[in-house]
């Protein structure tokens, strides 16, 4: 749940930089979740995750994974 909230915040932050006339809708997608994880995040926990931001046309505008591959 906390991961979804963080992803939503990141997506909203990115969308505020876009031209308001070209923005039609926001889509947040969870690609994978860890199996067998029973520990839940709590208020104040530090979370780390990877993301890739793409536009509707498939153009990638940001990714945390590129720094890992470089």
Automatic annotation (TrEMBL):
Residues 44-70 form the PPIase FKBP-type domain. Its EC number is 5.2.1.8. The keyword Transcription does not apply. SUPFAM superfamilies: FKBP-like (SSF54534). The keyword Signal applies. It catalyses: [protein]-peptidylproline (omega=180) = [protein]-peptidylproline (omega=0). It comes from the Eukaryota. Gene3D superfamilies: 3.10.50.40. Pfam families: FKBP_C. The lineage of its organism: Eukaryota, Metazoa, Ecdysozoa, Arthropoda, Hexapoda. Keywords: Isomerase, Rotamase, Signal. One of its GO terms (cellular component) is endoplasmic reticulum. This is peptidylprolyl isomerase. It comes from Pieris macdunnoughi. Residues 1-18 form the signal peptide. One of its GO terms (molecular function) is peptidyl-prolyl cis-trans isomerase activity.
């Amino acid at each position: 749940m906390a991961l979804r909230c963080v992803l939503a915040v990141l997506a909203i932050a990115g969308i505020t930089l876009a031209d308001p006339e070209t923005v039609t809708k926001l889509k947040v997608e969870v690609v994978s979740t860890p199996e067998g994880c029973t520990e839940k995040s709590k208020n104040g926990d530090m979370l780390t995750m990877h993301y890739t931001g793409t536009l509707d046309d498939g153009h990638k505008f940001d990714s945390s994974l590129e720094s890992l591959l470089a």
